[in-house]
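Now read this:
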Amino acid sequence: MFYECPNIKIINLQNLHIPRVTSMTSMCLAGRKTFGVNYATKLKTVDMRGVYAPKLKSMGGAFAGCTGLKNVYFDGMYAPNIENMAQTFWGCTSLEKVDLSSLGFNQCEMHQMFTRCSKLKTVNLNTTHKSSAKNMSDVFLQCPNLRNVYMNT
């Protein structure tokens, strides 16, 4: 979606209706470097409040490597059947708080979802939809400041 946009600072998709979209995988890659991946490191804010995406299945790696990402808003986003959130926020070293309570996870792959989010303090996965996880390995690997995690039982 925002491939090769290395200078993007704000993504505002508030109230966007995307009823047929199934994937938002790796949406913030900024293009390829000679040695590895170039991420949108200048991205500071993502606002997805009120997004209507009933068929969305994957957000895997969507914001991976966005080291400047500090604010993410998903309040009121309708995506009840996400199956892949693997590495969604991997390496988002400025991120302190994430609230994904409006999303629904369906046998969701969540491995390394927050790996290397060194400033992350609070995560809310207490969803309002019926949710289940398939793989949660290393979800919070290298998150030394993590204090609060809220999840449905």
